Structure formats: C-alpha cells, structure tokens
C-alpha cells in the first residue's frame, strides 16, 4: 500500500463527490425523458455516472435507438436541474469546506477534473463559493475521451507539474476510479448513489464515508 507523505496534488471529481447533485441529475433526466415518453431507469442513469456528455449521448442512443431525441431531452434536463439548484441551492457534501481549508492550510495543490461541461461546472463552483480554492479546473467538454479513459487526470497532473504517483484522486464513480487507476494515481472512493463492485473496490487505496475522513488520512 502506498504512503501519502509525498502527495502534492489532490484532484476532486465534482458531481456526487463535492456536491450532492447526482440525485438532482437523475430526477432531471428522468423527468425530461418522461416528457417525450421515454423511461429513464435508475440502472440506465447509473451507467452514465462519471462520463461526459459525448459518452452519455452514446450510451442513451445505443439503449433507446437512433430516434431518441437526445438534444431536446438534454436541454429540458438542464432547465429542470437549474430550477432545482436555483430554488434549493447547491447541496454540499459533508466535509467539503473543512477538507478544502485543510488542504489550503497545508499547501497542497488542488484541482477539479469533472465530466460536467465548463459552463455548468463554473456555475456550481461559484454558487458553492469554492471556485477560488482550486489551482486548475478541467471539464468534460475539454477532453477528447471520457472517463474511464485517464486523459482528464493526466492533463491535470501535467498542467500542475505533478507526477502521477504524487496525485490523489477522489471519486464517487466506478468510471472515475478506473480512470484514476489507469493514470497511475492514488484512487480514493467516497461512494454516492452507487456502491463499487468487488472488482472496483480491489483497485482502491481507500474507501471513505465522507470527505472529512480524508483529513485524518492525510
């Protein structure tokens, strides 16, 4: 098991990890799909967790067929999600602010590597008042290949001049853990709406209950 004394960079996923937005996302996708007489099951939605919009499109088009009105449903989903966030605010995961303050105080580099597109990620980070903590943010519409491909993590580490072995990746999704492992980084999982399979769990450095636990680990 690797030690954490030499860690320089902590890379955060966003949805489901920092913010409790996967539940909102599922509700919005399901409601938007229902408008067009399609049923978005929880199992189908779970397959899209941790992927960018391009990969989500591929998954849904493959499942529903070529007549699936992806762009119309996606646009409706955005409206519904925004209405929920504007009404209720950004739901913050337990320990987020405490962990960010701890990392800042101890001079760790911090980054966000999210499958969410730039506009939405920027809005959520600002609404939650955490955007100024991060040295770099890379989004799903700024990479060619979606998680579980390691591209997004490799680009973040290169941008911040950190070798993979000195990077922790905190993720809630199996796709994210696979990407972190393939990037040669230290994968830590805090499951959200989906517990990891035994195969994924075998890849983890640790599985934690919440972000506060990482403070003690470091």
TrEMBL record:
InterPro entries: HAD-like_sf, HAD-SF_hydro_IA, HAD_2, HAD_sf, PGP-like_dom2. Coiled coil: none annotated. It holds the Pfam family HAD_2. It comes from the Bacteria. This is HAD family phosphatase.
């Amino acid at each position: 098991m690797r030690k954490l004394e030499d860690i320089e960079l902590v890379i955060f996923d966003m949805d489901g990890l920092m913010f409790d937005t996967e539940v909102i996302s599922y509700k919005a996708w399901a409601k938007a799909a229902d408008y067009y007489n399609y049923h978005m099951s929880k199992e189908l939605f779970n397959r899209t967790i941790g992927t960018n919009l391009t990969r989500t499109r591929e998954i849904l088009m493959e499942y529903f067929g070529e007549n699936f009105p992806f762009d119309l449903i996606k646009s409706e989903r955005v409206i519904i999600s925004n209405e929920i966030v504007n009404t209720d605010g950004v739901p913050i995961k337990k320990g987020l602010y405490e962990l960010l303050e701890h990392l800042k105080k101890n001079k760790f580099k911090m980054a966000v590597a999210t499958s969410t597109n730039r506009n939405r990620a920027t809005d959520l980070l600002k609404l939650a008042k955490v955007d100024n903590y991060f040295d770099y943010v890379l989004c799903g519409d700024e990479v060619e290949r979606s998680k579980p491909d390691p591209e997004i993590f490799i680009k973040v580490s290169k941008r911040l001049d950190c070798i993979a072995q000195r990077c922790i990746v905190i993720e809630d999704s199996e796709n994210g853990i696979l990407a972190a492992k393939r990037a040669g980084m230290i994968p830590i999982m805090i499951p959200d709406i989906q517990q990891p399979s035994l195969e994924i769990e075998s890849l983890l450095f640790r599985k934690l209950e919440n972000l506060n636990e990482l403070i003690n680990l470091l």
